[in-house]
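Entry for the shared binder. Reason: the reviewer on the internal report wants the predicted structure included alongside the sequence.
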Amino acid sequence: MSAEWLIAISTAGTFVVIAASAAAALLQLRHTRGSNQIVALTECREKLESEEFQNAREFLMTSVPRLLADPSVRAKLSDPIFPSELRPAGTVANFFESMGAFVRFNIIDKTIACDLWCAVVVSSWDAILPVTRIVRVENPGVWENFEYLAALSQDFMIRHPSSYPPGMRRMPLE
């Protein structure tokens, strides 16, 4: 066998080894991304189920409308510091702002996030909307990732009125 053939065979062998290494690296990156997504989803679920967050959502739904009836509270929303009277509402909005960023930058898959939490996202967005309108006069970009997540969630709810798999039999409820 000539030297040229040996060089050609070794070059082809090197190419195969490099291609296999690249494929293994891509597979490992995919598994790492999946693991990171599981961690992010677990942390979001734990936060959403926490008593502190549940209390903050209840405050957002029940107390914020009453507080916004007070002109002095509404005026404070134009200040650079979020008013302490509304801090639980800000906690909810900031959490969904982070979750929206995770979805937007593909840290959390949008289909999974919407399937699990679309209703809570949309109801929270609807409840914080009066606050957002006032705050955005001075800070137009506030809670844009939350808005993005809410828009995705609304669209998901329209496309999927039920997340139950089509054609799958249902369990009796009686």
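Summary line for the report: The chain is about 75% helix and 0% strand.
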